[in-house]
Amino acid sequence: MTDNFLEPQSLGVPCPRCQKELQLKKGRFGLFVGCSGYPDCDYMTSADFDPGTDVSCPECGTGKLVQKTSRFGHSFYACDHFPDCKFSVPLPPVAESCPDCAYPILLRKKTTAGERYICGNSECDYKSKIR
After folding, report:
1. pLDDT tens across 20-42, in order?
2. Cis peptide before 51, with omega less than 30 degrees from 0?
């Protein structure tokens, strides 16, 4: 990047919608990748776009959980089929089922004592031993 990082920076990657070049841009919520053909093409994604966590969404079953950032700067994990599926969890998901209730995902929780897995189902109180 150049010294003036407020100017859009070309990435040399074609837009998946219109095949124009993608650019790294700065908006009011931080950096993002957007199409150079804006406003004709409004494609955009986050600058640190992660293709996913390889954890399937337990609600819709077809989507994957991806990391997103709220408008307040907090990370969360949500289904990539939003707005059709509105499933989200506040902690990193793990593709293991709960031994107590068989819910398809566990959540990785870090504490001062160590790391443990908790059930993603709010009605289940499963917690693994501290690792």
Report:
1. 888 888 887 778 888 988 889 88
2. no
